[in-house]
Design brief:
The protein has 2 domains: 238 residues, Heme Oxygenase, Chain A; 108 residues, Jelly Rolls (Sandwich). The protein contains 11 helices and 9 strands. The strands form 2 sheets. It has a 6-stranded antiparallel sheet with strand order 1-2-3-9-4-7, with no helix packed on it. Strand 2 and strand 3 form a beta hairpin. It is elongated. The N and C termini lie far apart (71 Å).
Length: 382
């Protein structure tokens, strides 16, 4: 009997390990949250879509209840359902608390247009709870759903705090971090009660993977769509033939009006350069002026934006991947996206050149900043 108990305990720990190491935790949306790459506007869109899942949640519980032949199991699920519904006060039901967070903190409209992938996610989640037996449903809702809430919502909370949203406005998430731990434990009791079944581990692991895989796919679609939302302004301004001219915008800039962007000095690596930005109200183009003193270079680096260099004065060499291009005044060099590149001044006077990038477009994607892709160490030109 002890051996059986130990074996079951080991199997359950193996399930927990499957949950905690599932590929879901490497999802791009979670990585973007952990790296503070998402804006409040991004979260407005993301959680506006997530609202449908919140509305569906009590249906998931009732679906598993329907498939349960055990009265005690139904009682446990009823208690979870009672708490989700706000107990005696419907205004404190969890979906309504989430609605208030969306409205008061993120400014999300009540009339959300749910995307097809959001509807599909919720319907497939409900289908999994409805069309499988009680063991499958218990594993799906316990380890695969309630059992990830604390870890998942802590990621969201930290991302919101990074954006300056105060703790007091994150009541919905803290409520679930505390409450869903209890829900997960009660659902685990139901799951463990099926331990006598020969297919217990196989069915449980299948259900666990199903729940996390559905959420993984949903989060991937959410992130991709969030990025599309960022560039939608550019898309609509191109599609709609209306001039963006604004009489208050500066369309002509003198050199003395340039905005310093960044510079670097490292004598040990022979690095010395400065970059300034032309402050034009552009949606895509981001023109810059780069200056490198005689005998110096910038660091080898790469980035998402493509760049065109036009040499204004001086002479030098531009390394693009494995190719070295000699340049002088009046000549141009193109650097493709993500290509390693570096520029060295080989003349007696400063090397000055115009760099035209599409950074105002690529900065809308997570991780693409002026500094993020620059390498710390210099690699010599070959």
């Amino acid at each position: 009997m002890l051996d059986n108990a130990q074996s079951f305990s080991q199997n359950f720990e193996a399930l927990v390990q499957l949950r905690d190491t599932h590929r879901f935790w490497d999802n791009g949306l979670l990585k973007a949250c952990q790296s503070a790459l998402l804006t409040k506007e991004d979260f407005k869109y993301i959680f506006g879509q997530y609202r449908l899942y919140s509305r569906f949640f009590t249906r998931f519980i009732t679906a598993v209840m329907t498939n349960s032949e055990n009265d005690l199991h139904r009682a446990i699920l009823s208690e979870n359902l009672w708490e989700e519904g706000g107990k005696q006060d419907p205004e404190n039901r969890h979906s309504e608390i989430f609605n208030r967070f969306l409205r008061d903190v993120l400014g999300v409209s009540e009339n959300t247009d749910f995307k097809p992938y959001t509807v599909q996610f919720c319907e497939e989640y409900l289908k999994a709870c409805k069309e499988n037996d009680a063991l499958y449903g218990a594993a799906f809702l316990s380890l695969g759903t309630e059992g990830i809430v604390a870890r998942l919502y802590k990621i969201f909370v930290n991302a919101f705090l990074e954006l300056g949203i105060p703790e007091k406005d994150l009541h919905f998430f803290h409520l679930h971090i505390d409450c869903d731990d209890d829900h997960a434990l009660s659902l685990e009791k139901i799951l463990k009660s099926f331990g006598h079944r020969s297919d217990w581990f196989y069915t449980s692991s299948k259900a666990l993977d199903h729940a996390l895989s559905l959420r993984d796919r949903f989060f991937t679609a959410l992130l991709e769509d969030t990025l599309l939302q960022r560039v939608s302004v550019v898309y609509h301004s191109i599609k709609t033939p209306v001039s963006l001219f604004n009489r208050t915008d500066s369309l002509w800039v003198q050199k003395t009006q340039l905005n310093p962007l960044y510079s670097n000095e490292d004598p040990s690596e022979n690095i010395s350069f400065s970059v300034s930005r032309f402050p034009f109200p552009s949606q895509v183009l981001d023109p810059r002026l780069i200056e490198i003193p005689a005998g110096k270079c910038n660091e080898k680096h790469r980035h998402a934006h493509e760049t065109f260099f036009y040499i204004l004065s001086g002479q030098g060499e531009v390394l693009v991947e494995e190719k070295v291009i000699k340049v002088s005044a009046g000549e141009g060099v193109f650097v493709p996206r993500w290509a390693d590149h570096q520029t060295k001044n080989t003349g007696p006077s400063p090397l000055v050149f115009l760099g035209v990038t599409d950074f105002n477009l690529t900065k809308k994607f997570p991780g693409n900043t002026e500094h993020g892709a620059r390498k710390k160490k210099n690699a010599p030109l070959r």
